[in-house]
Design goal:
about 230 residues, mainly alpha, flat
Length: about 230
Amino acid sequence: MSLERTETAVEAPLSLKREFPGDPEVLYTFTHFFSELASRSSQELASMASTSPQAQQLEAEVFESQGKWDEAAALYKKILEANPRAAGIRYRLGRIFLGKVPPDEANANREFEEELKADPENASAEFMLGEAARQKGQWDDTIARFSKASKLDEGFQEAYLALGMSLNSGGKFSDAVSPLENYVKLQPGDPAGHYQLATAYARTGRKQEAEREMRLPQEAAAKSAQRGRSPER
């Protein structure tokens, strides 16, 4: 890093992680190295392109992390003045509206809708609109939104769970099985996923599979407790 040989420097911790997966010292070094690399990159961006949309967005994200909603919103709006269709910016504005006390849900949803006009592939905006519909009990819209979010981003774990739960709540238990099976594969340690899947199985006549899903969280908890016990001396 001191010699500015970034490519070689990046390869070193990656090699360590491949050779020693899960090693605490390697993970500690990995964390600090990439934190330093990110810090250097942000400083370079600020010094070489301080007025660029990317620099403004990075500064706004820092304000967000500090809970300075007004300052962050002002920068995001400045970006939109230069480029009204900038991807991701209206989604972030929507999240800021939800972060206010009390949340400004109407303006948040408006921003999520505008985000989808600029970027129809934004799975997170679809998810947030699905959550808004869920809170109102609008199950058809909820299911459509969560379903689309899970299709836009196949790794979107929360979308699978939200879709399955909404289908269960809407009495569509057979439809709930597939997204919930996807969720428990991605998050096998989450009891909520197993419970929802057990419900879907039970209501579709799959009694043995339902019982298995109800047992899995208990078995996982027991194994975790067993690993946590100190050996007797």
